[in-house]
Amino acid sequence: MFARAYSLVTGVPGETIWLLLLVPVSAACLVFRRHRPVTVLIAVAVIGSVLSPPLGDTNDLVAVPIALYAVTVYGTPRVAWFGLLGFAFIELFGIQLWSSMPGADGASYRDAIALIEISAALPMLCVSAILTGMLVRGRHEQLRILVDRARQVARERDSQAQIATLAERSRIAREMHDIVAHSLSVIVALADGATATAQSDPAATKSALDRLSDTGRTAMNDMRRLLGVLSDDEPLAPKLHPTPGYTDLDSLVESFRAVGMPVRLSTTGMPTDSPAVQLTVYRIAQESLTNVLRYAVAPTRVEVALVFIDSETILTVTNDGQRSALRHGSSGAGRGIIGMIERAAVHDGIVETGPWSGGGWRVRASLPREPQEAR
């Protein structure tokens, strides 16, 4: 009615006015194409084919291809192809509707429609819009996959960094435990011995105190070197020293023998292990002897046996003392045994602990002679 009234006043055809009103409506619908692509496609198809003469304006040539592109990119290509088929039916319905309207110049109108239908402009535009949308959708999918992969790599990198940090903390904790537990146990034993002989044997007391002082200094140096690894300051960087190995077992046994432990070391075979394996064997022997000093009651025989065979290195530490939960005023939390097991596991080795047939306690560690990844 508005179009007819405006046509009577201005002389402009009412059909043209109606088309001018529908163009901004179609444009407004396209604003929502990303969020409601299917609804927008239906709306612009109805506006371009039913509410206005089909193929008689630019709604079909512009709005519908844009809507099909949006359905392909933000919906699915399958829905877009079905949408194109549905649009074809709506277009045919609009052609039939407007061709049969009263007052329309049916012959000339049908001739114009036939001329436009011969051209493949609209179908080509619609198909091109869908194909272009599929290409863009594929690029978006590839980009999404790359972004997800990059995030996954970042998460794995962070996870590996956390694992490495935890592993390093565990290694430092084991080293600190071995240094502190061994040194303090020897210091306590030497202090007890010095106290017991203070009146009866001053020379033995002085010797025990000297060894106690040496043990304390050695422990301080070891701790300083270990903590220096954690420092970024160049002046605090530790001096490089060889890691303990098989050649240091004699001095280790001697330090325990100095506090009264009847310990003996025996070696069978030819050592050819890497420094890492030698350090592991040394630390296991150190922890085992420390546990004997802390928990074994009146042992009369402590043996450290190191056997090298073709396939493995075997360390056995046995004692015949009665095991006590408390000695020298200390109780264990099991960290030492866990540390020995973890050290051996790094080299695909195993550690067995428990009572043995000769009475007392036994620690047996078996490490492959050629570990796969430990070196």
UniProtKB/TrEMBL annotation:
Superkingdom of origin: Bacteria
A single cellular component GO annotation: membrane
InterPro entries linked: DUF7134, HATPase_C_sf, Sensor_HK_TwoCompSys, Sig_transdc_His_kin_sub3_dim/P
Catalytic activity: ATP + protein L-histidine = ADP + protein N-phospho-L-histidine
Enzyme class: transferase
Domain DUF7134 per the UniProt entry, residue ranges: 12-139
Pfam families: DUF7134, HisKA_3
GO MF entry, a single one: ATP binding
Annotated ranges, domain Signal transduction histidine kinase subgroup 3 dimerisation and phosphoacceptor: 168-232
Protein name: histidine kinase
Species whose genome carries this gene: Marisediminicola antarctica
Taxonomic placement: Bacteria, Bacillati, Actinomycetota, Actinomycetes, Micrococcales
